[in-house]
């Protein structure tokens, strides 16, 4: 235990040393650290010795070395939009946040090479817009894209709505620049599409949530911009039909389907609670809804493809009702239901958010079983299941009654999570499909981690970060090699 | 040094111990090891203490443990079709080949889940055929597919002709089962499409060429079988036009292009030398040829797409002449030029084979520069450049006059390689786009390896295989931790 006075003295010393090593311009302390030490949902507020804001890769290297020299550890942070506390310090007196927000330069967009090189701190939507101005497309698309930063996307191997066609972030990455725990720079920003020179080291940093190093820049694949997009909202008689429809669409629409999201009937209610004047696109009520998008460029007539596909499946009864957006504005409105549903949930107060994946063929069964288990255990809570059918990824959220006392709400959230995870384990599913582990899911991850994996992860971590400088407490708790 | 007599006695002892530990059924010795100790091209013949042929994952684990207990190291082998000596022992008195050929079972094909689980020893074409019988498609396609085995494809991160649409083997893998250097089993055969539970350990084994463990089974993504395929052979006025055409096709044909190969005029000459009665599909002579394939399933009319695309680019003069295959047999014949060209090269005797990648936008420049450099340095040799435009991957092969003495041929091959690599280095390209490093390319890889990477690779190797049991001499030479 350190007395308060000792702690304060040490804090002053740390601040002085960091400013000395890096210059005052790079170092935030005091009240200014607060916004870097609150998570996206506002559930957790913590602190840090300082926040360092490097302007270059060399600054990042110097920052890591300065922290290591002081015996401080490092929590790398991008847009701070993560959902699992991967970038939220949990040991304020001994952790320093390194924010990449000032390293936001797009170093190169090369349309002829179908590639770009971008720094970790660039906001995803700004990068997507810049790429679009060159007639190209960077497929990563997720709710937080106006705030999240590309380095965080890489470090969490972000998913989103276009995964079924373009893959996770991992599949979009051609190369990485990483500052390693010892402050050396891994310089791997090649844009080669194929490179089988030995073990592909960049893979270990993708999805590592900053536990093995700090991603400072990324080279990525680009595709031609899809100048035709067809969006449809469909009413179905059962979630099983959504799975069957996906399989059918996967075949009939070749590889041109770019999104296939399912939503429950409650989606419209929740969306209206958030956006009251949102027009209702389908008249009837259906047990399941699908938001489907086909897109492409060039000589394929995407709208015609959507019309012929829906014509066939509606005639067969696989789809009960549907509407195809006739304009970009209408397509935007259809997506607003999907997004408004999330806002509506937030308005109902604290609730359980999950991020589950199961084998695609078992998605409907899992949702049925898990919702039934929650209903039996917590009859006063409301289930909201939605997600990405093509990826077997469901966000089964559970909303407790909002008029309960905070501790009762917390108890229901905890109980709901346990009930859902118990069902999930029988499906051999994942407790984190796309959000990562961070600190929030560490106990559930840790409890399910097979010994062989733990041994490999420990070997990997201690080989690359023997003094445990990088993001301790994230993903797993390791013990320092003595 | 061991005397011959000591060596023979030790060999007998090893054989006895391996049979004792594993049973005679699993152990081949004497003359029977020969076919496992010759490389695919027949350039290298070596030997091994024994060849072990496990029938199960547990057998593989027992085999690894038995070898380690005897102080022997292990060279894992699939179909032995590799081109870089990754599966060819180089220390016959201390290495054991573990062949996966008996682990050839397809454990599951689940069309509803778009996935399959297959053992490492399954021959690629047999797996593709089995998948096709379920109406599905496994996209990996390469010349050796009738002999190579899926575990080798994973361990070398195999490429091939469909990479531009479906990615390298890495992008097709959902999960792995691996026997680790200590004989424990990494059990990761999930078929989840999305799984962000911590660092993705399977990635380190893909492309590791058996240096970190032995892949014993794989779960992979399947896609619907493309029941429409349009194949065209095109004559172009320059290789630059091939690059421009690719960019155009990438946009106009959405993501439906599945192959885009370029070939030199000499391709037809070489193919005819191998297959004399092959019909000539295009009448004129052109400086560059492209073999292009578009494919898909369902509602998109693929032939119509190809016709409209070629109509436009021929009118614009980007393509000088072209033929679209009107039947499967005709499409097969067009591909025979591509394959016959390789056979024709083999018939001309020993020659340099390269496997180079450069940024896509610089492919034509590189071929021009590298061919000019070879022509200047070796005026009596013939250049043959062909490859995968969409991946920036060129096989620039150099054929010495076949009537030279063997040592003069070897000298020209060595010289050609040096000349090409010197040009390649100025392009920041890769000496191994898709074949791997193995033992053949180790010196060239080693000479170009940045210190930061070497340190990371050493840390990784010694963390996972501290006693250097797994495939020593492949990729890099490591020194045992003392």
Which CATH first-tier class of the largest domain in chain A would you pick? Alpha Beta
- Please state the oligomeric state of the protein chains shown: homodimer
Which structural class is indicated by helix and strand composition of chain A? alpha+beta
Count of discrete structural domains of chain A: 4
Q: Radius of gyration of chain A, rounded? A: 23 Å
Provide structural commentary.
The first copy, chain A, is α+β, with helices and mostly antiparallel strands and 482 residues long. Chain A has 4 domains: 96 residues, Uridine Diphospho-n-acetylenolpyruvylglucosamine Reductase, domain 2 (2-Layer Sandwich); 119 residues, Uridine Diphospho-n-acetylenolpyruvylglucosamine Reductase, domain 3, CATH 3.30.465.10; 118 residues, 2-Layer Sandwich (Alpha-Beta Plaits), CATH 3.30.70; 71 residues, 2-Layer Sandwich (Alpha-Beta Plaits), CATH 3.30.70.2740. In chain A, strands 15-12-14-13-17-18-16 form a 7-stranded antiparallel beta sheet, with helices on both faces. Chain A has a 5-stranded antiparallel beta sheet with strand order 5-6-10-8-9. In chain A, strands 1-2-4-3 form a 4-stranded mixed beta sheet. In chain A, a hairpin with a 5-residue loop joins strand 8 and strand 9. In chain A, helix 1 runs antiparallel to helix 2, helix 9 crosses helix 11 and helix 12 packs antiparallel against helix 13. The longest helix of chain A is centred in the last third of the chain and has 21 residues. In chain A, 54% of the residues are buried. The interface between A and B is large, with 95 and 95 residues.
